Amino acid sequence: MIDNRIDYYPTHEHEGIKFRRGHTLPFGATMVANGVNFSVYSSSATSCTLVLFDRGADQPFAEIPFPDEFRIGNVYSMIVFELDYERLEYGYRMDGPFNPAAGHRFNSSVILSDPYAKVISGRDTWLAKPNWDNVYPYRSRLAFEDFDWEHDHPLETPVEDLVIYEMHVRGFTQHPSSKVKNPGTFSAIRAKIPYLKELGINCIELLPIYEFDEWENSRQSPTTGETLVNYWGYSTVNFFSPKAGYAATGKFGMQVDELKTLIKELHKNGIEVMLDVVFNHTAEGDHRGPTISFRGIDNKTYYMLTPEGYYFNFSGTGNTLNCNNPVVRNMVLDCLRYWASEYHIDGFRFDLAAILGRAQDGSPLSNPPLLESLAYDPILAKCKLVAEAWDAGGLYQVGSFPAYGRWAEWNGKYRDNVRKFLKSDPGEVGGMIQRIMGSPDLYHQRGPTASINFITCHDGFSLYDLFAYNEKHNEANGENNNDGANDNNSWNCGWEGETDDPKINFLRHKQIKNALAILMVSQGIPMVLMGDEVGRTQKGNNNTYCQDNELNWFDWSQLDTNADLYNFARNMINFRRQHPVLRSPTHFQYWDSVGSGYPDISFHGTKAWNCDRSPSSRSFAFLLCGDHAKQGIVKDSMVYVAMNMYWNGLHFELPALPPEKKWYLFANTDMPSPADICENGKESLLDNQHEFLVGARSVVVLIGK
Amino acid sequence: MNVTSSTVEGITVIEASGSIDSKTASEFERNAIAAIQGKSAAIINLSNVDFLSSAGLRVLLMIYRQIKAQNGKVVLVGTSEEILDIMANTGFLSFFITAETLEEGINTLKAA
């Protein structure tokens, strides 16, 4: 064992601080024997100074200019000795030209965060009032990277078997009804794992957990007077650091251990963790925004700039990360590798991912190097990669996102088709048939696993509101209801907002059940929005990015008040988990490749084997033959689903089963709870084996066994 | 911070007091690791410890790993509510048995 090396000892001294030449790689601050290795890149800085603080101190205890001999290429590195790993906060000053037209915005009076910092302090407790005069508000810190994972390993669940639950760390348990010890934190999610397991999901997708500043753009709501904040967190301060304010132990700087402990425990329970990652822009905004890190370290490397030196705004938030610049591309890659290896993250969902396929001048690339690098990366090889395949600059790539056989997409067409079908729009049956099959019209080559199916997500109406509001009601956001999408494809079932009318309320619940049933019987990967399983409402607000209150918080008392919804959602999700025929890794072929006497999938209507796809049709049925499950490798029951979005009930003739099998009823959304669904395995034998009356706006699920 | 060790009914008991943080963790580690050499059980009495930082938690885990290598167990005694909460949130607690009193800790180890 080497316990002594020359580089364990200093060669230089500045104001009593001992240091020596450092190692250029890795970038960031790395604990080494006796000290810390600092390394930072800037293409155009003329000099760089390392600034060192004791935790929370107003002023630095040392500023050490990098001697020019320590610079190799454009990388400044040094090892500083005898630092307190735990209390150290560090940053940089970069000197260089301020010449926006040439892309440079250096300002050596600003202390800058390290783009490769692994922990950021400054917003350690959610919404704790910051010191607005802090000379260095977002401070880089060191992380211990010695977590004891024991036997944990990313789960590598086959992608077609996933049921994703999109959730917000704080919103999940912040409501007092959650009755957890540390509401709104990673730790509290851990306390609720039994709930997630019972619900049946096997992957949580967390809204951004990279460090962001909830105070960004904070203001008063004109309608409620409440403080509006950056609640969703789509505004990254640092890509490598978990949000301290989401950790119960953030005030002690222990968020890294807390998050890893959550992930380890989720994995023990068979639940994967996917992160919603925002690589399209940063929290620095446009030329009027704050200088936190990237702008001051190397503006023209990190941002897409117009020829005049202003910021391209493909993200709709002020700036655009220059992610096909080779240096930035490497940072994104380093970042994802870090999260995959250091945090055992199972997958990533890329916000506004179409931006990642744009060239440095903003034009779309046919073969984007970043997307290709991610797809072929050895460390990310088993990670799920999911694209939000559009951006705010008008690039819409659903079905055409450069996939390299790896990328899946949020299927926006699935959402739109299903919403229109549910509100009885004509002309949707043809599209629905594609959506049910995993959208082969969009993903013919890529298979159903390219399709993340969703009806609702954080952005837009909740599922309850989809059937309670025709129009958005975003007044509380303080933008005169001008923010948020207008094409919601929602239907209020006869009354805008809350009502006592039992018929309307029954219909709303039925529509929620219809939606959940359709989502769970579609090929592809279903994603459920947190709270939709209990009818969570945002009171018609379809853009709750700034609302840190009950509009966004999961109200656990709804488990009782909307017990019928929860019961239906739980059983429906578990039905999908129990029936492999619903989770084909490849597209169905419309024919019988296993000799069962039935094609893998067939479409029906009021007459068996006869599906009305005409524009006026609002109903159809399909039959999955269980012998074809997972390409014929496993055996399953026959599954028959009838969907009638017509406003009258319709008799559906049932396709004949093989003589040894009978039809059993699993779910019928037209029935009041608890007759609407049953526990898996408790399906009831149908008296009439030839025909089923499917009620108005109802979904019926049968199994043949 | 102060560390002492003793043997009670054949079991090594390490007692610390004050704050175990980056400034004091190495001293705690040195004393504790010396005291448990070759031992297959240990009690760490934290009754008089008011704060454990990340560095302090890591020393506890090192003690656990050494004892675990001998197929043994580590009991924490008298841990404050706040430290227990931090240890639970950061996952460190799952490696240890906890007891309220030294006597209870000794009985637990003897029964194991």
UniProtKB/TrEMBL annotation, chain A:
Gene3D superfamilies: Glycosidases, Golgi alpha-mannosidase II, Immunoglobulins. Residues 166-576 form the Glycosyl hydrolase family 13 catalytic domain. CDD domains: AmyAc_Glg_debranch, E_set_GDE_N. One of its GO terms (molecular function) is amylo-alpha-1,6-glucosidase activity. The keyword Transit peptide applies. GO terms for biological process: glycogen catabolic process. The keyword Cell division does not apply. It comes from the Bacteria. InterPro entries: GH (IPR017853), GH13_cat_dom (IPR006047), Glyco_hydro_13_N (IPR004193), Glyco_hydro_b (IPR013780), Glycogen_debranch_GlgX (IPR011837), Ig-like_fold (IPR013783), Ig_E-set (IPR014756). Keywords: Glycosidase, Hydrolase, Transit peptide. Belongs to the glycosyl hydrolase 13 family. NCBIfam families: glgX_debranch. This is Glycogen debranching protein GlgX. The lineage of its organism: Bacteria, Pseudomonadati, Bacteroidota, Cytophagia, Cytophagales.
From TrEMBL, chain B:
Coiled coil: none annotated. InterPro entries: Anti-sigma_ant (IPR003658), STAS_dom (IPR002645), STAS_dom_sf (IPR036513). SUPFAM superfamilies: SpoIIaa-like. Residues 1-109 form the STAS domain. One of its GO terms (molecular function) is anti-sigma factor antagonist activity. It comes from the Bacteria. Pfam families: STAS. Belongs to the anti-sigma-factor antagonist family. This is Anti-sigma factor antagonist.
